[in-house]
Fold this sequence. Notes:
Blueprint: H1 2-21, H2 29-41, H3 47-59, E1 69-70, E2 77-78, H4 83-93, E3 97-101, E4 108-113, H5 118-122, E5 140-143, H6 148-158, E6 162-166, E7 172-177, H7 178-186, E8 202-204, E9 210-213, H8 218-225, H9 237-245, E10 254-257, E11 260-267, E12 272-279
Parallel strand pairs: 2-3, 5-6
Antiparallel strand pairs: 1-7, 3-4, 6-7, 8-9, 9-12, 10-11, 11-12
Helix pairs in contact: 2-3, 3-7
Amino acid sequence: MSDDFSDSGTSRSWLERVGQFFSSTPATREELLELMRSMRDSDVIDGDTLGIIEGAVGVSEMQVREILIPRSQMVSIRASSDPRDFLPTIIECAHSRFPVLGDDPDEVIGILLAKDLLPLILEPARMERFAIKDHVRSAMVVPESKRLDSLLREFRITKNHMALVVNEYGGIAGLVTIEDVLEQIVGEIEDEHDIEDDDYLIKDLESGDYTVKALTPIDEFNEHFKTGFSDEEFDTIGGLVMQKFGRLPDRDESVLLGRFQFTVLSADGRTIRLLRVTPRESVDDVVTDD
């Protein structure tokens, strides 16, 4: 009897707590977030759930210009290019979709899917007959000012995964993907550059480059590469690279340290996660901020 009474009392207590939280309707987004934080503090919801709610609310206030991949970092294909010219780039960067542009760099032809190029790799003779305009899909084009919640809805309706972003003059400002929007809600999503095996921090690539997790201790990096970077200020190679940039870098940005080029392969809104390390001897025309 006492156990039943205790369980009943616990249930009433939990329901009363939930009822208390919703006794008054939040009038603003900030009031809603304060309510959710109170629920987290009272263990009604967990921290991950709160993070998703905060992300969803934030998306409704953000515009495409805040998260787009700038034009300078886009990997695009010219419609007049020969497959022999662009296939190595596609294989190297390993993306699944590529903007196709005309001779005018602001002319959008469409989107090319990497999977549509597989026949060219399997049957090289097809390259002679390949016409890129026969394989492009229609491109979704959005303005920089478009709200992210509206963009996500449009992605869902049209079943597109990528959109080209234009500025107020109609020129291409960059591109945005559905993954970029979702990451604002749920955080960094694992991509093709992420290393799933936590047993190693440094991975040799066939190209002669390396992928290095940003949390790699500087002393381990020094031992592997026979370098002498100081660990007095920072414990990890990611901290050292961040100091060199002087800010949180975007994906695909590069910087030189010693005899290596460090390229950011993965980063979220708070930290660098994964780096590509290229020996400086094989780096041509690299611009540094020295």
